[in-house]
């Protein structure tokens, strides 16, 4: 039991390290770097990536802080918190396609305006794929704010911390400070350092995103991540090495950005502390409708994206500016029905790799002190921070060496490498802050450690465990490149089906598979939520129900 | 197992001894019988682009026939991009997997073929030893033996024909422009409603090559390797693009990623003219109810660029015999006629239909559906492959960033 950490080390760290070595081998070729430096697309695409990454991160953070400050302890917060699981479950790619159907020149908004503006053809205006990346930034913000809110909610959930924060809030309010200013001066400075990892994930995602950028991002030039992806997938081996170099460059930029943020946070400390103790009491503003309305607008964007996907899956000919398609057909869903096997492969694989991720995360946290998390961090974050396609190259090479390419075992290992870090990050806050007194009590009553885990700790942590599993499930469902390469393309999932059909422009069928791709994780999140609630009712965990 | 036999055949061809080939026919037949016997029971993982439901459905039909007739199981491995399997086979070679590879057969042409042939990633020569090779129209369709300026040398088997074709909704485009000059004129009258895919996407580059050939007073230099002063010959192309781009969709500041994106934009009403490399694509999309029935297709009257797509076997395929049996079936009149049917896929045949038996010829006479090309134009061969890089690099420098 004491050495159970060897399990994640062996099943996660070793294969990942091997994959990283292979992945980076190509990226260290000096010729590839020279070729990259000479590419005229490098400077503009890197600038664009930095702009999209930083704008989306800062906007997401700002909106999250503002929403929590103004919504917390209001009824809208509880409603929003319940909606978060559903919003998170929708895969980035499916959301991007749905949002494009709303925003693009021939999209729903333009069709609604058309009769007023007298348009007979879609306006020749870049409302998506605009050169400044605004559509991409908007989509990223819409996708990242729920993620950050979910993390804040997870931080506030542990009973002790929640009580402590509430107490601070009440004390400060009793001293005449309005709630909003207590958040900004006292509560956020405590909570923000705990959001460092999720923020890092948001920043890394904004810099390296490919699937959303392909649908919504600029094309001339595209962001560096898209270029790197195209180069890595090229048939020409020299281009592949240039792509690997670009991917490594992006990883370096991600790390440099994170470092800069950490330094800035430290430099800001004196100013924050001065503000905390300044003692002035700004006038309290009545809680306005702004924050709930904004949250509602965000949730509506998701709802329209899903409804439009559903609509397009049956609209076969739908020319501008008609609001209703000229021809309706169920062929797309017929194609889904014949490809039902892919749904089972997707669900089975996602379940197995999500369970593996959770087991490995628990094994790690049960047998190591919290301080070790820091040591493991570089490996844990590698799959999140490195461009997926680069890691897949190494992973595929590993599968070849082990002789498990083209097999379900290989796919299970590959997907687990992606689900494990997410499970760990999702579970750590609740798991690491579990009140140690429960264990002392159990020991004092003469119970074994295993009995304590099975009868006290795991049941009490069932809600976070289930939601970590749901996140792992969602991560596995959205895997494309690792599924195609390690599985040698032999195991079709709803995601590989959606993306291969997208390559042929079969919008109806692609929309149908994109909906399935969203539905499967949504079911997993719903199951997790239901499990957590049922357990809370049964054993009476306070603050969860 | 066929390599010795093929080498002998090649030697015969080289020595001009092919007229004496009947003497060898018995030996050929015996060799093919051995291949068919070895193939029985094998599973062939056919790695092919899976972006079209019609193509996927056709492959499913073919897999059923091959299983029933030859006892070979064919599994379609759907790819988003053929480069995926090129990379996979290369990685397998690097990892020392010289047999038992993950792909047995692939749909390929152009740059991917060139890369795989140069890196010795292909099995063969095998294509000219297949029984149905005799039916392939190698004289009328010379691109069945030369791909991307590279001699095929039997390393891939011709599967279907392609030719640059335009299409539009006749309700919106009454007079289809029959040349590049007419197309530019059309752009002037309809600013913002025309575009082409962003090079180096294959169809975008093909559009540029077509423009280049139509502008050139003398086409000969473009069928030879690009010289050092290539840009001098390309000057008319860039001059024309400088005029054309401001008239295009998004004033030529943005380009769509592919022809399928363009097809959707045309269906939505954003573009007026689409382009494709499959002369029957529009007809097929009309049949599938994704384009309106009033869509028409045409080729420029003086001819458009065409080529061939092929089937190949990776060097480390596990089921080489099964793959050859499957490829031979896909080249048969039965499979080729069904593939050419607009209701099924609409991919033009590589066979010399006139040389087939009357019954087989009848299978090809499916007639035309709404949206087909009514007046086929001559096929222009592609310029020498070396021009591709010159054009793509200069295009990227001028318009790419």
Using brief descriptors, characterize the structure shown:
heterodimer; A: 545 residues; mainly alpha; MetI-like fold; 2 domains; two-stranded antiparallel ribbon; 25 helices; 77% helix; globular; B: 401 residues; alpha/beta; D-Maltodextrin-Binding Protein, domain 2; six-stranded mixed beta sheet; three-stranded antiparallel beta sheet; 14 helices
3D structure, described in words:
The complex is a heterodimer of chains A (545) and B (401). Chain A has 545 residues and is an all-alpha fold. The model of chain A has no long low-confidence stretch (mean pLDDT 87). In chain A, α1 packs across α16 and α19 (408-432) packs antiparallel against α22. Chain A has 2 domains: 1-25 and 327-538, MetI-like (MetI-like fold, Orthogonal Bundle), CATH 1.10.3720; 39-277 and 291-312, MetI-like (MetI-like fold), CATH 1.10.3720. Chain A contains 25 helices and 2 strands. Chain A has helices spanning 6-27, 30-38, 42-71, 75-89, 92-103, 108-117, 134-156, 159-174, 179-191, 196-208, 211-216, 224-233, 237-276, 290-312, 331-338, 340-367, 371-385, 388-402, 408-432, 436-444, 449-460, 462-477, 481-486, 494-503, 507-539; strands at 315-317, 327-328. A two-stranded antiparallel sheet of chain A has the order 1-2. In chain B, the strands form 3 sheets. In chain B, strands 1, 2, 3, 6, 10 and 11 form a 6-stranded mixed β-sheet that branches. In chain B, strands 8-7-9 form a 3-stranded antiparallel β-sheet. In chain B, a hairpin with a 2-residue loop joins β4 and β5. The radius of gyration of chain B is 22 Å and the shape is globular. Chain B contains 14 helices and 11 strands. Chain B has 2 domains: 3-161 and 309-364, Periplasmic binding protein-like II (D-Maltodextrin-Binding Protein, domain 2, 3-Layer(aba) Sandwich), CATH 3.40.190.10; 163-306 and 377-400, D-Maltodextrin-Binding Protein, domain 2 (3-Layer(aba) Sandwich). The termini of chain B are far apart. The longest helix of chain B is centred in the N-terminal third of the chain and has 18 residues, at 22-39. Chain B is of the alpha/beta class and 401 residues long. The mean pLDDT of chain B is 91. At the A-B interface, α18, α24 and α25 of A face β1, β2, α4, α5 and α9 of B.
